[in-house]
């Protein structure tokens, strides 16, 4: 795997407080969670869920994630949304979930969020997962960079394992665009 083929780990945060009053404002967080679950209405008019939601405890229903996100956004100053993407391998949901679970449990001695929800998408050229978590302070740049690098490393190991399995089985990765979704 070449250096430029490392998995992508992008993060952004959404403020959950009004700059003027300091009162909770959670609309952006709720729109983000809804988008992760269903995408844009014009791209998904029948509103098919784009994947399965997961937490550290297993599968979670979309309505439960919405309820969790509303409560967490009300109680925390920031929502973090992260995208974890691999370039080449057909990853299983369990690959992403196990990697996130391991990475988050390794953070328990820090103030890094360990409660999260995640959904895997296969509707683009690269399998990717959206991760949602909450905090009261923004993450320090160095802390986020260190976590990001560790996550890239772990995802690249899992991706390489999947690629090796696929080579052994003679599977080649071919993606076909069908009506708004990549299949394959």
Description:
Strand 5 (116-121) and strand 6 (128-135) form a beta hairpin. The chain is of the alpha+beta class. The protein has four helices and eight strands. The model is unreliable at 175-179 (pLDDT under 50). The protein has one domain (3-183): 2-Layer Sandwich (BirA Bifunctional Protein, domain 2), CATH 3.30.930. The strands form two sheets. Strands 1-4-6-5-2-3 form a six-stranded antiparallel β-sheet, with helices on both faces. A two-stranded antiparallel sheet has the order 7-8. Helices cover 36% and strands 23% of the residues. The longest helix is centred in the C-terminal third of the chain and has 28 residues, at 141-168. It has helices at residues 27-38, 62-75, 93-105, 141-168; strands spanning 8-15, 53-55, 58-60, 78-85, 116-121, 128-135, 176-178, 181-183.
């Amino acid at each position: 795997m070449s250096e430029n083929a490392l998995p992508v780990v992008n993060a952004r945060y959404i403020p959950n407080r009004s700059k003027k009053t300091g009162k909770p404002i959670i609309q952006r967080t709720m729109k983000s969670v809804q988008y992760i679950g269903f995408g844009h209405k014009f791209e998904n008019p029948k509103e098919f869920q784009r994947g399965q939601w997961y937490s550290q405890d297993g599968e979670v229903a979309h309505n439960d994630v919405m309820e969790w996100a509303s409560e967490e956004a009300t109680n925390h100053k920031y929502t973090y949304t992260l995208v974890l993407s691999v370039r080449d391998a057909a990853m299983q949901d369990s690959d992403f979930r196990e990697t996130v679970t391991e990475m988050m449990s390794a953070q328990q001695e820090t103030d890094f969020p360990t409660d999260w929800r995640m959904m895997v998408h296969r509707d683009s050229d690269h399998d990717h997962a959206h991760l949602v978590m909450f905090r009261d302070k923004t993450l320090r740049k160095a802390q986020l960079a260190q976590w990001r690098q560790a996550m890239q490393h772990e995802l690249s190991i899992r991706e390489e394992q999947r690629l090796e399995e696929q080579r052994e089985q003679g599977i080649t990765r071919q993606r076909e665009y069908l009506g708004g979704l990549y299949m394959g």
